[in-house]
Write a structure and sequence with these properties.
Elements lengths: L29 E11 L5 E10 L1 H11 L9 H15 L6 E5 L2 E2 L9 E5 L2 E8 L9 E7 L6 E4 L6 E3 L6 E6 L3 H7 L6 H5 L12 E7 L2
Parallel strand pairs: 1-8, 1-9
Antiparallel strand pairs: 1-2, 2-6, 3-4, 3-7, 5-6, 7-11, 10-11
């Protein structure tokens, strides 16, 4: 995925985080360890989703080289802010890699007002928080997932505990779903089109590969 922003960025430099069209046969080139925390209101509605992504050293160093204007091998506050604004603008068309469903139906999310970016121990860290556009009640089956529809970035929840919900109400159960790619393809073969295989970013079917936090709640 290419970062798109006010600066002209070489295609070989920030060819991650956001891209245009990448064939489904391409393997991930950028890797991020992620955390997701679902925050709830007292009335059993979803308040927000809190995301943290920690990117691999290679991609992080590329970002450092691109945005380190004074060449001091550091990212100062202004440089970090520019990175945050660039990523924020680029991720917008991909819904910030979020997929939320209620009983299988998509739930619309508000764009996060801003992103926070840090650079620690040679790794780029991105944090943001987003909210549902309409009240989202915990009833039935609610899924929260993170995926890159272009398949260029692998966002990995290394432990099930990295997908959490704060103060899970009584009557709700929690599980982490990790789809097997081959099984996902086989189970959805009838609905996958040639367009998906040629341009996965042009469809919404790549969400079948997303690792998901699934909350099942009694009404």
């Amino acid at each position: 995925m290419q970062l798109k922003g006010r600066r002209a960025i070489p295609a070989t430099a920030l060819v991650a985080l956001l891209t245009s069209t990448v064939p489904a046969s391409v393997h991930p080139h950028v890797f991020a360890e992620a955390r997701l925390e679902v925050m709830l209101n007292s009335d059993r509605t979803v308040k927000s989703l809190r995301h943290l992504w920690r990117f691999d050293d290679v991609f992080s160093s590329t970002v450092l080289m691109e945005f380190d204007k004074n060449a001091d091998l550091k990212l100062d506050d202004a440089e970090l802010q520019e990175i945050a604004e660039t990523i924020h603008a680029s991720l917008a068309e991909y819904n910030y890699f979020q997929v939320v469903t209620l009983d299988g139906k998509d739930v619309a999310m508000k764009p996060p007002p801003a992103l926070m970016v840090n650079y620690e121990q040679d790794q780029l860290i991105v944090l943001f928080e987003s909210e549902p556009k309409a009240p989202l009640k915990l009833t039935g089956k609610v899924d929260f997932g993170v995926y890159d529809p272009t398949f260029y970035t692998a966002i990995d929840f290394t432990e099930d505990t990295n997908m959490a919900v704060a103060d899970l109400p009584a009557g709700c159960s929690r599980s982490v779903i990790r789809p097997d790619p081959d099984e996902a393809l086989a189970q959805n073969q009838a609905t996958l089109t040639e367009q998906f295989f040629n341009d996965p970013a042009g469809t919404d079917m790549s969400k079948i590969f997303a690792t998901k936090l699934e909350l099942t709640c009694q009404g």
